[in-house]
Amino acid sequence: MKHLQVAVGIIRNANQEIFLARRAADSHMANMWEFPGGKIEPGESAEQALKRELLEETGIEVTQAKVFDRVDHTYQDLRVTLHFFLVEAWNGEPFGREGQPQRWVKQRDLVAEEFPPANYPLVARLKAESHQNH
């Protein structure tokens, strides 16, 4: 079974909003919302991949990333390990560089069902945290 290592950025601004992008219609888990990120290439650290992918996908230069969680998920034909980073410091303004729709969502308003199943535990954790902080 194919095993993908993926670096994912939870880009959070000072208003406790998180930047989300919509997956392409022709991709795995099409049209779901996701935290931007992508495949970790051989020889790359998770953090290096995160910085490269976020620059490619959202146009930002990550200046600080904090390890937030690691999730292993197995789909029918694919195993993914998601390395989540909390990104709260960057240069530039994130946007959908590849033309993908995007939006900012309040952390407490995230809806797990709008994400691929591998993200459910993470979305639940983010929501729980946002309720503790208010």
From TrEMBL:
PROSITE patterns: NUDIX, NUDIX_BOX. It catalyses: 8-oxo-GTP + H2O = 8-oxo-GMP + diphosphate + H(+); 8-oxo-dGTP + H2O = 8-oxo-dGMP + diphosphate + H(+). One of its GO terms (molecular function) is 8-oxo-GDP phosphatase activity. Transmembrane segments: none annotated. It is an enzyme of class 3 (hydrolase). Its EC number is 3.6.1.55. Its cofactor is Mg(2+). InterPro entries: Mutator_MutT, MutT-like, MutY_C, Nudix_hydrolase, NUDIX_hydrolase-like_dom_sf, NUDIX_hydrolase_CS, NUDIX_hydrolase_dom. The keyword Magnesium applies. Mg(2+) binds at G37, E57. 8-oxo-dGTP binds at R23, H28, E34, F35, P36, G37, N119. GO terms for biological process: DNA repair; DNA replication. Belongs to the Nudix hydrolase family. This is 8-oxo-dGTP diphosphatase.
